[in-house]
Amino acid sequence: MQFKIYTHLHRVTYADCSNGNHVYYGRYSYFLEEARGEFFRYLGITFNDYHKNGYLFPVSEFQLKYFAPAEYDDELIIECNITKFHGARLGFGYRIKKNSSLIVVEGETLHGCTDLDNNVRRLPPNLKNCLKLYIANGTK
């Protein structure tokens, strides 16, 4: 199954960097969250909207692999795509690049879908419909 890619831009701030002028490794999780949140906003409904409707998407797995440093004032291209989309599970893959092609980081997050009391719920039907636009060969 092939998935379409959502792209988000992030300019590295001074606050993102360590003393060595490289992005602090812990900041990349924020970049992925930012891209994922903007992807949902692009689809027309925010995480906050889902929360108000009784849905949460807690992270159950998080993985990153570092290839090159990003530095202050770099413009990063954050690519986000769906890797899992089934029942109560939703996964995202990420690639962060700079200078259009240099891969800085690749990663993945896996999320469950729960209610406000942390009981497992199936993915909301409206989210499934929105995500179908980003899935080239149907759902799985």
Provide a brief overview of the structure.
By secondary structure, this protein is α+β, with helices and mostly antiparallel strands. Helices cover 21% and strands 34% of the residues.
Write the layout of secondary structure elements.
Elements: E1 6-11, H1 28-43, H2 47-52, E2 59-66, E3 75-86, E4 89-98, E5 102-112, H3 125-131
Antiparallel strand pairs: 1-3, 2-5, 3-4, 4-5
Descriptive account of the structure:
- The chain has 140 residues and is an alpha+beta fold.
- It has a single domain (6-134), classed as Thiol Ester Dehydrase, Chain A.
- It is built from three helices and five strands.
- The chain has a five-stranded antiparallel beta sheet.
- The longest helix has 16 residues, at 28-43.
User: How many strand units?
Assistant: 5
Radius of gyration, in Å, reads 16 Å
Percent helix: 10-25%
Shape-level CATH architecture: Roll
Give, in order, the helices and strands: EHHEEEEH
What's the main sheet like?
5 strands, antiparallel
Mean of pLDDT: 91
Major β-sheet strand ordering: 1-3-4-5-2
Structural class: alpha+beta
User: Low-confidence spans: pLDDT under 50, at least 5 residues?
Assistant: none
Structural shape: elongated
The CATH fourth-level homologous superfamily: Hotdog Thioesterase
* Assembly form of the protein: single chain
Highest-level CATH class: Alpha Beta
Total domains: 1
What is the terminal-to-terminal distance? Answer: 8 Å
